Task: inverse folding
């Protein structure tokens, strides 16, 4: 499972980067999303995956013996997903506004802020 | 002890309270402005108190939720971060009053009055965070606020600039997150102090350098270092200065702050491959920034490129890595934030009253408004490093540290770049201030009294900032001593770690 998820993460990164380098704005946003997912997944599998064991530690136990799921990355991923969701929402609205105001979804056309007067 | 912690949490909570209150006052802009006035000043007072505490106690630590040290969220403020918080708070006061004259329609001001404070909260939080994930969260708070501030008003140009800004920053965030994952996988903690200790015991691990590279890219994008700076000149000049002044002043400095924090605490930069990398990047950042500025003919774009160039100097301090060099970098941050903001404020004042930022269409300001020209000249000379103004002291300390550690190449580069900085400041001076007014164009005002009557708040803010610049220029001793002490604390990381760990 670890290997499979690692390969998936790599694929997501590759796909995300490819799409981000694309000149279409919609593809760029999808690329951003994919990169976000890739990072979340990466964070999730960095603490070894264990199957069917809870991340909760009973209050009676002082020291953990045996295998247990690491709760920290899960908490981090949860937060990161929520933040990522907000940012994606903003990015999509921004894209819509840009399209409405400039009439183009081609990043190559949006170079006026870089031009010399 | 408990007082310290209350002060620390107040610095964080005051902007949040202001943002929430202003959300309730949506649409009632006068009420929002009054709340804002009160809260920016309260924030300044509390920040001064916090800095005072860090000077007497070296560090203020708050263990949120009383978790065992390495597991919970820890907020820690040492002299460096305390100074950065005070600096952002001071600028927030100025930017807040400066922006009062830019208020357009109701909905734009309503949004601004809320988002300004979430940005301030994000800034304060990022300076406080003592663990990496917490830092990530504050970065996002700051970023989303900055997205909103940049797009306020939704002009065509702004949206174009914003989409580049958003894309590159979201990319930086994903890299940052992956870096956090790597550090967690390597050390089993996200607390910066503990991670630093564990990484030291790991020795020369390849993955450590990979993690370092991730953070270098993530923070480097925020700090706009070469070759990751292109988003800055593409987006910063598009938003109305009144809305984005705080953003321009502090956002890149957060990147520099986190770079210094990370590469002194977690992976100390000396004797790692990163030292050479930073040295090269610092040189290129300076040179490319200043050359970019030389080609521009728009007031704000020249200043935007200069931000990039000046980041190079701060990076140079980090690259040299001795306590003196870090002290130089700290002093340079102070100098740069004050001077650059003042230049942007002056540009904004001229732009607002003439309706243009293009150097071709400006002119004749020196003849009619010599006081404004003088204000500009003080800041411009200070930026180039003419003694005895602030820039000179910053560059002097950096050059001295560079020569002491034998890095004369980077020092030579930095001194040559200063000449080019002078060149582009002279360009602004020649075109906007000295050249006769082009036909059919207007002056900001016909005389100073008229200018003052039209823009009271803006001019007062510029005056205050100029006085502060002169104060730092003529009494640099106290600031330099403070910077040296703060730098010693930053470089001797054992002390920082002790403060984070001993208390819980």
Result:
């Amino acid at each position: 499972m670890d290997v499979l998820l690692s390969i998936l993460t790599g694929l997501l990164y590759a796909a995300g980067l490819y799409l981000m380098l694309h000149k279409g704005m919609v593809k760029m946003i999808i690329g951003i999303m994919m990169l976000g997912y890739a990072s979340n997944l990466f964070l999730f599998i960095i603490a070894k995956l264990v199957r069917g064991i809870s991340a909760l530690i009973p209050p009676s136990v002082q020291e953990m013996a045996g295998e247990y799921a690491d709760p920290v990355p899960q908490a981090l991923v949860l937060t990161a997903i929520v933040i990522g969701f907000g940012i994606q929402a903003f990015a999509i609205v921004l894209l819509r506004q840009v399209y409405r105001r400039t009439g183009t979804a081609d990043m190559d056309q949006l170079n006026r802020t870089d031009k010399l007067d | 002890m408990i007082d310290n912690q209350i002060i620390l949490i107040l610095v964080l909570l005051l902007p949040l309270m202001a943002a929430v209150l202003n959300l309730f006052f949506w649409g009632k802009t006068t009420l929002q402005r009054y709340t804002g006035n009160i809260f920016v000043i309260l924030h300044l007072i509390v920040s001064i108190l916090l800095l005072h505490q860090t000077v007497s106690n070296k560090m203020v630590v708050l263990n949120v939720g009383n978790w065992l040290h390495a597991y919970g969220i820890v907020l820690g403020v040492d002299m460096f971060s305390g100074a950065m918080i005070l600096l952002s708070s001071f600028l927030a006061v100025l930017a807040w009053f400066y922006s009062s004259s830019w208020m357009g329609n109701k909905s734009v001001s309503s949004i601004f009055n809320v988002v300004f404070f979430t940005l301030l909260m994000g800034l304060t939080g990022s300076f406080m965070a003592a663990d990496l994930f917490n830092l990530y969260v504050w970065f996002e708070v700051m970023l989303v606020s900055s997205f909103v501030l940049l797009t306020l008003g939704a002009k065509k140009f702004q949206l174009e600039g914003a989409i580049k800004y958003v894309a590159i920053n979201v990319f930086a965030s994903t890299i940052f997150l992956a870096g956090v994952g790597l550090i967690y996988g390597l050390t089993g903690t996200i607390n910066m102090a503990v991670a630093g200790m564990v990484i030291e015991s790991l020795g020369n691990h390849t993955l450590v350098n990979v993690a370092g590279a991730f953070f270098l890219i993530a923070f480097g994008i925020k700090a706009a270092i070469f070759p990751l700076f292109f988003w800055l000149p593409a987006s910063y000049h598009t938003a109305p200065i009144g809305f984005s002044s705080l953003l321009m002043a502090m956002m890149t400095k957060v990147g520099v702050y986190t770079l210094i924090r990370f590469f002194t605490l977690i992976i100390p930069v000396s004797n790692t491959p990163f030292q050479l990398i930073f040295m090269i990047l610092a040189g290129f950042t300076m040179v490319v920034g200043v050359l970019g500025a030389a080609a521009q003919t728009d007031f704000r774009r020249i200043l935007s490129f200069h931000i990039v160039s000046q980041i190079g100097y701060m990076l140079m301090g980090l690259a040299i890595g001795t306590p003196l060099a870090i002290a130089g970098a700290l002093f340079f941050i102070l100098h740069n934030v004050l001077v650059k903001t003042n230049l942007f404020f002056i540009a904004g004042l001229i732009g607002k009253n003439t309706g243009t930022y293009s150097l071709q269409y400006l002119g004749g300001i020196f003849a009619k408004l010599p006081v404004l020209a003088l204000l500009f000249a003080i800041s411009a000379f200070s930026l180039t490093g003419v003694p005895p103004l602030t820039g000179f002291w910053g560059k002097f300390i950096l050059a001295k540290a560079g020569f002491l550690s034998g890095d004369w190449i980077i020092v030579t580069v930095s001194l040559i770049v200063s000449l080019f900085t002078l060149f582009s400041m002279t360009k602004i001076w020649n075109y906007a201030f000295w050249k006769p007014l082009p036909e059919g164009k207007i002056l900001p005002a016909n005389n100073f009294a008229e200018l003052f009557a039209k823009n009271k708040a803006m001019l007062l803010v510029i005056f205050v900032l100029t006085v502060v610049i002169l104060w730092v220029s003529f009494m640099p001793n106290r600031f330099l001593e403070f910077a040296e002490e703060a730098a010693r604390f930053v470089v001797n990381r054992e002390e920082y770690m002790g403060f984070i760990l001993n208390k819980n």
Observations:
- Chain A has one domain: 2-49+70-107.
- Chain A touches chain B at residues 16, 20, 25, 28, 32, 35-36, 38-40, 42-43, 46-47, 72-73, 76, 79-80, 83, 86-87, 90-91, 94-95, 97-98, 101-102, 107, 110, 112-114, 116-117 (CB under 8 Å).
